[in-house]
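ping. complex inputs:
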Amino acid sequence: MSTRGIPGEARVQASSTLAVPMSLLTLVGLGVAGYMAYTDLTSSTLMCGGIGDCDTVHASAYAFLLGVPVSVLGLGSYAGIALLLVARQRFVGEGEYLALLGVLTIGVSGTVFSAYLTYVEFFVIHAVCPWCVASATVIAVLAFLAVVNVRQEIRRETGDRQRKDG
Amino acid sequence: MGDRGKNPQRSASPKPPAVGSAVRVRELGRTAASRHDGKLATGAVLVGLVLGSILVVLSLSTVAGGAREDAPILVRPEGTPAERRALGPVNAPVQIVLYNDFQCVHCEKLHREAEVEILSRYVATGKAHLEVRQVAFLGPESASAAEAALCAADQGLFWEYRDALFTVWRQVGPATYSNQGLKEVARQLGLKGEVFGACVDSGARRAEVQEDMRRAESDGVRGVPTMFVNGRRLEGALPFESYAKVIDEVLSK
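pong. complex structure:
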């Protein structure tokens, strides 16, 4: 979304509107990863609702990283994003921007790892867990929104500087 | 972002706000950030890509077996016959069927934890009969391992071989289930190498594994491990107490 050349208020609205979908997606991610982590930590059955094969995916060696369930790592990532989004509301200036970059970093790393896990589901263990695919989708969209948001911030800063210089 | 919504007009103003105000602080901060925006953003993406790649490499190395914790010492109940793939009296009041897969981490956990208790408290005491059915839900290595375990059963060492496979797999990963790995575990257990090798290489027990798969399907097994206690289904690697509760209920009837 381009914000170049529009009045300041409109630009502010364009940027801040992304905070809402990013927050909602983070809540969805927390819920999905939290449920998967709970079933992994309690060794209980992951309800698949007849779609896919959750138990096969979660019983495979790929479901763990150095002995830690990857669902717990996912939960940690979403918790980190949630904290950074909250921090954005409280920080000012560079701190606010750095919090957004933190979201971007977690989003990109999560997207890379989720893409790998999704590949493993389809082509290595030949079983798909809808919860995992949902989480992978959420983190990918979050990363995309973070990229868009960063671009908006950069354009806005450039516009502000140009106005001050002019 | 929230401050923008509270005071949206400030960004539109070309004049700097008064020194000392909160808005002024924000503007100063934003000006400082603007010097780094592009580089920082690129750096954030690159760090994300590197972190994601590290996670992938760690996952691959974990699966390949480089980073597993030490295996526990497995306790065998004394006085139980170690032959074929069932333990305990055939006419025991509690009939337990356990479906597991050699590549399933929860199966390995169940084998290491609750199963040991079940064997010592119920099977070794003659109260229960436990039959293990090896299924191959998680790929060809699972099938190879299941067939090899049945080849070991031919020489009366099914349980010992199964223990060893889970233990070695936990330590070294999928390489355990290569043709060479399966034979090495057999050699260490003292199985007759030529007989075992011929059994594994010829796929002599493949039909039996396929039969277990068929029975799993007909029993409605949706994942592993799944245990049936007199027909009552228990899914996942549950704590021993969960199994004991069901078994005790059967015994009390």
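The mean pLDDT of chain B is 77.
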